[in-house]
Each structure stands twice: as C-alpha cells, then as structure tokens.
C-alpha cells in the first residue's frame, strides 16, 4: 500500500511541476554611481523530468528553455547626472566707488561690491558650495560645478556695443582720480575706478561662459553671480550701474557660435527696473524674445522713459518679439508675478519654443529692497525659476542684475540656486494679484495676442481682430455702436417716459472760446438729462456717474459676450426718485428736481474719439462738464435752496474738483456730498487762471 501511495504522490507532484512557472532572481551588474544593483525575476518554463539510463541520470534542456539575461544598460538621462554651474570670481569686487566723504563709508553706494560676496557666502552656509575660505575655489562640492571665468574679448563685446563705448570703459584703467570722479559725476547713475574695466570684462565673460556651459551640456543649468550688472547699458553708453550689457552680449555670441543648436533665445528680465539696454540690443531681432516685468509708473520710474511701456513690441523683423509688463506702482508681490507668469510668460515662451532661456535676475523686487519697493519672497523667485526649468529642455542660465538689500539678495539667490540644483520651490502664500495687475496683464494680452496665438481666447483667427480693420467698416452704412450708448439711451428713455425728463444741451458755439479743454464725446444726446420743472425746484439732487457696469458671460468657444445672460443694474436715480416720493410727507410742498450726467468712458481706441488726434479724457471731462452745469444752469436757478451732489465711480472726483474751485459759492447751497466709491477726497487737477490769464496747475 505504501509503495503504491508514494507512486501516486510522485505522479501528482510531477503534474504540479509541469503546471507551475518557476521564478529565478537574477542580480544585475552594479550601477555606475555605486548604488545597489537591482534584482529581476525571470520566468522559467518547467523542465522535463530527468531520465534514468544504465544507472546514470541525463537531463535534456531545449534551446527555448535556456535562460537569457539582457546585459545592463545605462538609462538615457542627460539632465539628472549633471550639476548646476556656478560663476563667481572675487576680482569682480574690485569695481567700487571712490569715496569722497566719510558719509559714503556709512551709507555706501547701492551697487555695493559686497553684493556678490553675500550671495556666495549664503550658498556656502547652505551647503550648496564647499568653500570654507570663501575665496572662490575651483572644487566646490557635489551639487554645483565651478565654471571657469574669463574676460570677455573686444570682439565679443562689439557684438552689442560700439567701439566708442568700449574705448571709454577701457580708458578708465589709466584715468587719474579726478577724472574718474568727473566721469562718475557726468554719467547716468554709474561710477568707475581703475578696476572697473577688468570687473566689467569678467562679468560679461562670466555670463558668456555660464550660457556656453549649459549649451555644451557640461552643466544642466547655471547661476552667474556677477557684477557690475548689465541690462541698462545701451549699445552706445553705460547707465544705471551697468557698464557692459552682459546678457545681451552673451545672447549675441551664443547665437553666433552655436547656429545649429541655438536658433532662438528667451531673455526674461525680472529686475524691478526696465532693461532698456537689453531691449535696444534685440529690438529688431526675431531670434530673441525679450520679456521684462518692471515698475513703470507711466515712465517716471528709472530709467524714466516710455521705452518700457506695453506698446513697445519691437520693430521691423523683431516686431512681436518684445514684451513689457509695466507695473503702475510699487508694492507688487508674489501673486502679481505669478499671475503674469501664468497668463503671459509661460504660454508665450512655450509657443516661442526657445533653445535657451536666460534670466536677467535682479533681486530688487524682493521684499526688503528699499529701491524696488516691492515684496517678492524668496519662495516666489524659486517658483518662477521652477516654472522656467520645464521649458527649453531645462537649458536655463540665471544671471545676476540688480538687488541692493544684502540680506534680501542673499536669501533670494539661495532660493533660486536650490531650485536650479533640483529642490522643489518652497511653499508660498498664494496672494491674489492687485486689481491694477489684472488690468496691466489684460492690456499686455490684448497687445501681444496679435503675435502669439496662445494668448487668444476662443477661436484664434476671429478673436482680438481689430474690428475697425474689418472689410466694409469704412462704408457709411456699416455702423459700429459702442455698447455703452444704447445702455444710456435705455436709461434716458425710461426717465423720459416715466418721469417726463428733458435733455439739457451743451452749447459749444464755434465762434466762442470753448469751456472744455478736451474734445467732447461724439454722443452728446442724452448726456445730461433733468426733470421737467428743474428751474423752479427748491431742492435739486444731481448725480454724475460713469457708464453702467455690465455683468456678462463670455462664450468659451468664440469669446463673444452672451447677451441673453448679461445684465446691468437699474439706474440708481430711478430708485431714488421713487423712494423720495414715497418718503415725502403729504403736506410737504418742497419741490424736488433731478439732474443726471453720464460721463462716457472709453477703454479701447475708437476712431474719431480716442484716437491720437483726440484729446478726450473722461476724468477731466467730468470735472469740466460739472463746472459747465454749475455756470450755465444751476447758478441761474432762483428758487434753489438745497443741492445734493452724488457721484458714482471715477466721476465722483469731479464733485471734489467743483467744491475746491468754487467752494465759497457752493457751500451756501450744498447740503451733502455723497460718494459711492472709496477715492481720495482730493482733486486730480486744479486749473486756475490768474490775473494775467495764464493757467497754473496744482496736482
């Protein structure tokens, strides 16, 4: 029984063996970087049972059953194994201002030689660079690779600058102290000493080498801690602490030296000042897309020209390859920069598809910088750097420009360096952008959508076309209607029908001097309307307002306004009249009158109204039309005892202006001034006429 049972068990085990798949672990060769070898499991088909013949056992393995182990292969990774390149040299600190007084020791020049030292020191303290002596050693550890610096050659510099410009900077090497001080005094916010030429060549050459190392694949990205900065230096003149235009010179030479691998470059300038020198170097060059985010303030912030406005888009073949995002004021923070990045920079750069991105990385928008007056955090700079790493196959070179708070630039540069090395950006509080930022970015999108499809909403070919260039617009029968006009007509018609309102005309005789300093709106009908017995009223309520706001839904496909789901609020004067009539005592014989003034406000250029030949300005017009009503109507109302002025929107400022111009007469009759917007109670502009008939302006 036992023998028969054992025989059955052997048969059962044999069948199970035939149905099983054997797994064998095979270790691969050690990897090149010394990490533990991986283990693979290889499936083996069950082998045939060994056969006994003449007392010996033989095993037959078919060709298909042999184990074949694939040889190990290195992963096709070109970015991860590389380090981040670093450019730094202590000799760039030799460029320094010649002190002429004790106070300059106490309060040194903002472009302080210690700027690059403090950044390098912070990189060492954070462990990204191994250099205990802070002397700029060549072997700097496992995270960053020291890129050898060199002086830029005359040939390289002349790719951007004129010979006269180069000779002037070169001549500072041999100037005496008095001449150096004289050139410092004459220059546009620059200083020079006998080492300025050397430092400028090193700064320029270091920027070139930082870009070359990225293009040649010696590093995955690079950080150039260089000075003096460069983006204000124009082809013919140094300016704004800048001697040579470092980034512009580097970009020109990279395009020249690597025509096959580098055909397009993006330069992003997030220094708080507009990079007028960089922009001028590429204003007609379609190979370089220049994007600048900067304080502009209508051209009053340095460099103090209109060259940094959003309408400066390039010229000739370079038209459409220059983007300015001009901040209207100080106080910009992470949310403002993130909004501009997500709405404009990232879509545009991705569409442009560059082979290299160079960042003119000024840190004077950083929180704590008194010159910049903004609040970008180190995490904010890290986020922007991280966003750019995903474009151009990671080929990114960050080059120091401005930044004048030593602690702020050290923290900001460290945040950028960490992201370049491979760390994710630190978390930051996502702040909502300022309303002014949304307006500026929207303006930029409208301008640049002509050149970049990624900025067009809806169907690219039909949205953002200039409607005034459409075929047939010049035909007199083809009429374009501003949507604010029919809305005003509806308001007026309702008051005409319900309360018998009348129009008060503006009489502007050609033979007499106009009371208006700006052009009048084209649509004067229904501009000023009043209750029919306005001349006999003892109390008048005057409302002056901007056009009604429209709450509208945009069609997500073609971008047009869906009229069936768009609304406006009922005119407030209608509600006011009804409420006063309801609250008025039955025995009260006081007569109430109403005047309503609509001030047209146009945001987009409309031929014949806000074109270059028109001087129409809504704020100034609102001030002047209210003064016109006072002089030509209200001052003649003999029964008037009380006047209530109500302002909505920007037009409220006209009431303040009226009060300040004729406050002696108006205080007798005005019972209240009501403003519906939180605006300063101060006039935008007072125009007074003295005895000589000359205008004097008070801002």
Report on the structure:
- This protein has 699 residues and is an alpha/beta fold.
- The chain has three domains: 18-74, no CATH class; 84-97 and 106-455, Histone deacetylase domain (Arginase, Chain A); 484-698, no CATH class.
- The protein has 18 helices and 22 strands.
- The chain has helices spanning 2-19, 103-106, 114-125, 154-157, 163-171, 177-186, 196-215, 246-257, 276-281, 334-352, 378-389, 406-421, 435-448, 484-499, 572-583, 618-632, 652-661, 663-669; strands at residues 22-27, 39-44, 51-53, 56-58, 84-87, 144-146, 221-224, 265-269, 288-295, 322-327, 356-361, 396-400, 502-503, 528-530, 539-545, 551-554, 561-567, 592-598, 642-648, 670-675, 686-689, 695-698.
- The strands form six sheets. It has an eight-stranded parallel beta sheet, sandwiched between helices. A six-stranded mixed beta sheet has the order 13-14-18-15-19-20, sandwiched between helices.
- Strand 11 (356-361), helix 11 (378-389) and strand 12 form a beta-alpha-beta unit.
- The model is unreliable at 16-35, 459-465, 603-612 and 678-699 (pLDDT under 50).
- One of its GO terms (cellular component) is histone deacetylase complex.
- Residues 109-419 form the Histone deacetylase domain.
């Amino acid at each position: 029984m036992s023998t028969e049972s054992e025989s059955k068990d052997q048969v059962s085990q044999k069948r199970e063996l035939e149905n099983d798949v054997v797994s064998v672990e095979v270790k691969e060769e050690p990897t090149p970087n010394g990490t533990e070898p991986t283990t693979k499991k290889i499936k083996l088909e069950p082998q045939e049972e060994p056969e006994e013949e003449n007392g010996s056992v033989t095993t037959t393995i078919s060709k298909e059953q042999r184990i074949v182990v694939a040889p190990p292969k290195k992963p096709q990774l070109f970015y991860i194994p590389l380090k981040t390149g670093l450019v730094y040299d202590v000799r760039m600190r030799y460029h320094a201002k010649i002190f002429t007084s004790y106070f300059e020791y106490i309060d040194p020049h903002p472009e302080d030689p210690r700027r690059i030292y403090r950044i390098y020191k912070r990189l060492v303290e954070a462990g990204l660079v191994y250099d205990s002596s802070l002397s700029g050693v060549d072997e700097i550890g496992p995270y960053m690779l020291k890129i050898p610096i060199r002086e830029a050659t005359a040939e390289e510099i002349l790719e951007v600058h004129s010979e006269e410009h180069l000779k002037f900077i070169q001549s500072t090497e041999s100037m005496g102290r008095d001449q150096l001080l004289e050139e410092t005094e004459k220059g546009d916010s620059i200083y020079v000493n006998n080492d300025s030429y050397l430092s400028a060549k090193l700064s320029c050459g270091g920027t070139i080498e930082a870009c070359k190392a990225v293009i040649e694949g010696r590093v995955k990205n690079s950080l150039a801690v260089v000075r003096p900065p460069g983006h204000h230096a124009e082809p013919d003149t140094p300016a704004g602490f800048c001697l040579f235009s470092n980034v512009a010179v580097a970009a020109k030479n990279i395009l020249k030296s690597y025509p096959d691998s580098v055909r397009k470059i993006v330069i992003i300038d997030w220094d708080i000042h507009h990079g007028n020198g960089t922009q001028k170097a590429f204003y007609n060059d379609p190979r370089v897309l220049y994007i600048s985010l900067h304080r502009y303030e209508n051209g009053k912030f340095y460099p103090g020209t209109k060259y940094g406005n959003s309408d400066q888009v390039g010229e000739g073949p370079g038209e459409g390859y220059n983007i300015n995002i001009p901040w209207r004021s100080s106080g910009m923070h992470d949310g403002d920069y993130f909004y501009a990045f997500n709405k404009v920079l990232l879509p545009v750069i991705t569409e442009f598809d560059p082979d290299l991105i160079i960042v003119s990385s000024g840190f004077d928008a950083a929180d704590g910088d008194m010159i910049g007056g903004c609040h970008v955090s180190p995490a904010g700079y890290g986020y922007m750097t991280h966003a750019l790493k995903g474009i151009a196959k990671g080929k990114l070179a960050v080059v120091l420009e401005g930044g004048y708070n030593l602690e702020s630039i050290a923290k900001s540069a460290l945040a950028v360096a960490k992201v370049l090395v491979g760390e994710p950006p630190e978390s930051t509080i996502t702040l909502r952008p300022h309303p002014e930022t949304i307006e500026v970015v929207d303006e930029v999108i409208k301008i640049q959508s002509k050149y970049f499809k990624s900025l067009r909403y809806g169907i690219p070919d039909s949205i953002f076309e200039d409607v005034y260039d459409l075929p047939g617009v010049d035909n007199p029968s083809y009429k374009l209607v501003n949507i604010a006009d029919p809305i005003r007509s509806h308001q007026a018609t309702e008051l005409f029908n319900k309360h018998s309102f009348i129009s008060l005309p503006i009489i502007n005789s050609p033979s007499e001097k106009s009371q208006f300093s700006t052009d009048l709106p084209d649509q004067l009908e229904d501009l000023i309307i009043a209750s029919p017995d306005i001349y006999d009223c003892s109390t008048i309520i005057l409302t002056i307002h901007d056009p009604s706001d429209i709450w509208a839904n945009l069609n997500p496909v073609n971008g047009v306004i869906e009229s069936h789901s768009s609304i406006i609020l009922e005119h407030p004067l209608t509600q006011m009249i009804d409420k006063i009539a309801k609250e008025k005592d039955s025995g009260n014989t006081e007569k109430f009158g109403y005047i309503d003034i609509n001030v047209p406000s146009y945001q987009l250029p409309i031929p014949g109204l806000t074109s270059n030949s028109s001087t129409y300005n809504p704020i100034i017009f609102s001030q002047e039309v209210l003064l016109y009503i006072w002089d030509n109507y209200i001052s003649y109302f003999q029964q008037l005892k009380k006047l209530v002025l109500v302002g909505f929107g920007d037009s409220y400022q006209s009431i303040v202006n009226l009060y300040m111009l004729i406050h002696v007469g108006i205080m007798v009759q005005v019972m209240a001034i009501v403003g519906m917007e939180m605006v300063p109670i101060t006039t935008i502009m007072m125009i007074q006429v003295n005895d000589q008939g000359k205008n004097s302006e008070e801002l």
